[in-house]
Amino acid sequence: MGRSFDIAVFDGDGIGPEIMAPTVAILRQLADASPEYALSFTHLPAGAAHYARTGESLPAASLDAAGKADAVLLSAMGLPDVRYADGTEISPQIDLRKAFNLFAGVRPVRIGPGHQTPLKIPEGREVDFVLIRESTEGLFYTQGKGEVTENEARETMLITREVSEKLFRFAFSLAQDRKAQGQGKGRVTCVDKANVFRAFAFFRGIFDEEAKAFPDLVADHAYVDATALWMVQKPWDFDVLVTENMFGDILSDLGAGLMGGLGVAPSADIGLEQAVFQPCHGSAPDIAGQGKANPMAMILSAAMMLEWLGMRHDVLALTADGQRLRQAVEQVMQDGMSVTADLGGQATTAQTGGAVMAALA
Length: 361
Ligand code: ATP
Known about the structure:
Elements: E1 3-10, H1 16-33, E2 37-43, H2 48-54, H3 60-68, E3 71-74, H4 92-99, E4 104-111, E5 127-134, E6 147-148, E7 153-154, H5 161-180, E8 187-192, H6 198-211, E9 218-223, H7 224-233, E10 240-243, H8 245-259, E11 266-270, E12 275-279, H9 296-313, H10 316-335, H11 349-360
Parallel strand pairs: 1-2, 1-3, 3-12, 5-10, 8-9, 8-10
Antiparallel strand pairs: 4-5, 4-11, 6-7, 11-12
Helix pairs in contact: 1-9, 1-11, 5-6, 7-8, 9-10, 10-11
Adenosine-5'-triphosphate binds next to loops.
């Protein structure tokens, strides 16, 4: 038995618990079969339903336990009818981002044969890039605190040197790892609007400084509007894209659309000390409790968690299992027999989870 890792699990709201159940079952199966590592799971309360019951959306004890865990697996959270007194949504995922300084939002965009992509991808082209969204400042800096008078509303965008340096170093290191694994071209593109805003010229300047430490990689720039166009016209050109919080928020939904929908879009929020892995989608109350939810985004987020833990702790078996899990999901999508309604199939959440387990075995 190798090293054991404690995973903090937030089951979430709406379809959250439904997609978390097969995900944890798959992780248990992988860990049980591995002599190299073990996983233990601590389920922690948080979310909109918990708030409705107790008046607390993220109890201090849950936050504390999540901070001490080796990684956090978080399902979809929030319910449209449950809100704070000021009308804002319950979003413990944003509280965790702030509490743990999770500055890098990692959104992989991969389009394999099973993806319901609206794109026509030419023979021989492969879409496999990663969008990194800064997740603690930018145009979300004054979130919930903007100044609104009768005739004016103001929000502030903040870009700091400290966070930008960490963000760009993370982006370049990721491009290096991808290149080493034969997965990327070794290119990082800074996505900004430096032609209009001084704050983005500052952002770009820091990117260029950090690029000097990575001479083996190509560092270039793109304006955010052009990037949206190219994500549709030639997404196979990208490797790692790095951008500000609001731009990243918008482009990552575009990325999910290119992959065929939110049900297959995973994500990770990563800091220097902790990381949270969660699907890009919300709690989908319209389909909750019906067994229709696609668990792929949650399972792919868990695969990212295994890869992250493996890299961080130098446990090759974890990294390998993360990749194997991603390939198993892609195989099930390609077969098309056990996919949920959003991908044109008839399988239930549990059947899709079972098919991924079978593909792994
Ligand atoms: P949020 O603002 O919390 O991110 P949202 O309003 O963007 O949420 P989602 O909850 O993500 O909305 O759902 C958007 C649509 O996508 C809904 O019709 C929902 O049913 C569908 N959807 C989201 N996730 C899944 C999933 N895992 N499987 C199937 N359908 C999904």
